[in-house]
Amino acid sequence: MNDASRTYDVVVIGAGPVGENAADRTVAAGLSTAIVERELVGGECSYWACMPSKALLRPVIARAEGRRLPGLSEALSGPLDPAAVFGRRDEFTSHWDDAGQVGWLDSAGIDLVRGHGRLDGPKQVVVATPDGGTVRLTARHAVVLATGTTAALPSLPGLDEVRPWISRDATGAKEVPGRLAVVGGGVVAVEMATVFQALGSQVTLLVRGQGLLPKMEPFAGELVADSLREAGADVRFGASVASVARTGGEVRIGLADGGELVADEILFATGRRPHTGDLGLDTVGLTPGDWLSVDDTCRVTAVEDGWLYAVGDINHRALLTHQGKYQARMAGAAIGVRAKGEPVDDRPWGAHVATADHAAVPQVVFTDPEVGAVGLTAAEAERAGLRVKVVDYDLANVSGASLFGDDYRGRARMVVDLDRGVLAGVTFVGPGTGELLHSATIAVAGEVPVERLWHAVPSYPTISEIWLRLLETYRQ
Ligand SMILES: Cc1cc2nc3c(=O)[nH]c(=O)nc-3n(C[C@H](O)[C@H](O)[C@H](O)COP(=O)(O)OP(=O)(O)OC[C@H]3O[C@@H](n4cnc5c(N)ncnc54)[C@H](O)[C@@H]3O)c2cc1C
Ligand SMILES: NC(=O)c1ccc[n+]([C@@H]2O[C@H](COP(=O)([O-])OP(=O)(O)OC[C@H]3O[C@@H](n4cnc5c(N)ncnc54)[C@H](O)[C@@H]3O)[C@@H](O)[C@H]2O)c1
C-alpha cells in the first residue's frame, strides 16, 4: 500500500450529508472506509442549500409571525437588516470552511481523500487530487456514489452571457438586488422569493404552470401565492421565459406571450441534474449524466455483482437531505451484513431497506405560511388506485392556531386509505405547522390505525389539536 494506491472495504464518492452518513454506517459495521470529496466536506446542503437558505428564512418568518401579534407588531414595523441576516447565514455555513466537518470525519474514523473521484471499472475509484496527482482506491466490498446534484438550467439563447443566478447565488448572496426575477414554481423558487421580497427586492415569480408547489396539495401553493402577493411579490402564472439578455447591468427577459420584464438579477430555480456526467459511469456500463436507479437497499440495479450503491439526490428517489441520510443508514447497514455474509432484511420496513421512500417522505417548505407534507396527496392516492376519504379542516378554527397569530390562515388535509384504515398522506399549511409534520410522519410510516389515533390526545391549546378536528371530521 502506498499513497497512490490504497485498498479499503468501502469507498464513498461525495462527502455531502448523505455520503458522510453512508461512511459513518459502514465504519460502524466494522468496515474500513474512505470518502472522496472535491469541494467542501458537508456538501451542497451545508454550504449552499438547506443551512444557508433556512438561516436566511428564519428572521423573515419570525418577523411575519411577530407582526400578527398586537403588542409585538409595533416593535417589528421596521425593515430587516440584510447585513445582519447575511451575517447569521455566514455563521451557519461556517464561512464556507469545512474544518468542523473534517474533524467529525476524523472522530468517526473515516479517511478523507480530497479530489475529484471517478469510477475506473468494478470496485475501482481514481481520484484526481488538488496537487495534480492521482490516488487509486480499490474497494473490497462496495463503492457508494453520493455525488448529489446541481441546478438544471433550460436551454435559452444568451443564457450564459446573462450570468443567471442559480440556487448557490441566492443562498450565498451578499447584496439584495433591487429587482429579482425568479423562474420556477417549486420549493427553491418559493423559498428564495420569500427571502428576497422580505429583504427589500421587488420579486417577480415567473411560473410556467398554473400554480406553485405543483407536487403538493393544490391549496399549499394557493396559500403561499396569496401570501407572496400580499408581501408585494408579483406572482405570474403561465409565464414562460423565451429569451434573456443583459444590457447595461439589467437583465431583459422576453416572455413567450410577447411581454418583457426587466430585472437586476434572474434566478433559475428550475430543478436539478445529477453530478454523474464526469464520474466514470461508462467504465461500469452506465450512461454518464443519468440518474441512477437503485433497489431498496440502494444498490444500482443495472450493475452486476451488487458492489455499486447510489444514495441521496443522485438516485432521484427523494431530493431531500433527511431522506438521503435515511437511505445512507439503510445502504450502510446492508453493505455491513453483505460483507459478513449475513442475511439482508429486505422485507418491507426491514432493517436494510429504504421502504419509507415509497410511502412516507416528509417535506417542510419554510415559507410564510409553512407547508408540511408526508405521504400521498389526494391526487396521487387516486392515481395509485387507493379507495380514500379526503378530510379537510380550516386551521383558523383551531384554538392553538388562532392564539399563534391574529388572522391565522391555514388548512390541513388527511388522506385516509379506507381499505387499510390508515393514513396515506397528510398536509399541513399554516404558520408554525412545520414542527407538527413529524407527528404525521409517525402516523403514516407507523401505519397507525385511524381508530387508534382517536386515542392520541393533542394538548390544549396547541396547533396539534388539528389532529382532533381532522379525526372528528373523518368520523362524522
Ligand atoms: C436551495 C436549496 C435548499 C434546500 N433545502 C433543503 C431543506 O431545507 N431540506 C432538505 O431536506 N433538503 C433541502 N434541499 C435539498 C438538499 O440540499 C439535497 O437533497 C441534499 O444536499 C442531498 O445530499 P447529497 O449528499 O446527496 O448531495 P450533496 O449535498 O449535493 O453532496 C454531494 C457532494 O459530492 C461532491 N461530489 C460530487 N461529485 C464528486 C466527485 N466526482 N468526486 C468527489 N466529490 C464529488 C460534491 O462536491 C458534494 O460535496 C435543498 C436544496 C437546495 C438547492
Ligand atoms: N425545504 C425543502 O425541503 C427544500 C428546499 C429547497 C429545495 N429542496 C429540494 O431541492 C430540489 C430542487 O428544488 P427546485 O425548486 O429547484 O426543483 P423543483 O423540481 O421542486 O421545482 C422546479 C420547478 O421549475 C419548473 N421548471 C422546470 N423547468 C422549467 C423551465 N424551463 N421554465 C420554467 N419553469 C421550469 C418546474 O415546473 C417546477 O415547478 C427539490 O427536489 C426540492 O425538494 C427542498
UniProtKB/TrEMBL annotation:
InterPro entries: Class-I_Pyr_Nuc-Dis_Oxidored (IPR050151), FAD/NAD-bd_sf (IPR036188), FAD/NAD-binding_dom (IPR023753), FAD/NAD-linked_Rdtase_dimer_sf (IPR016156), Pyr_nuc-diS_OxRdtase (IPR001100), Pyr_nucl-diS_OxRdtase_dimer (IPR004099). Its cofactor is FAD. Signal peptide: none annotated. Residues 8-322 form the FAD/NAD(P)-binding domain. It holds the Pfam family Pyr_redox_dim. Transmembrane segments: none annotated. It comes from the Bacteria. Belongs to the class-I pyridine nucleotide-disulfide oxidoreductase family. This is NAD(P)/FAD-dependent oxidoreductase.
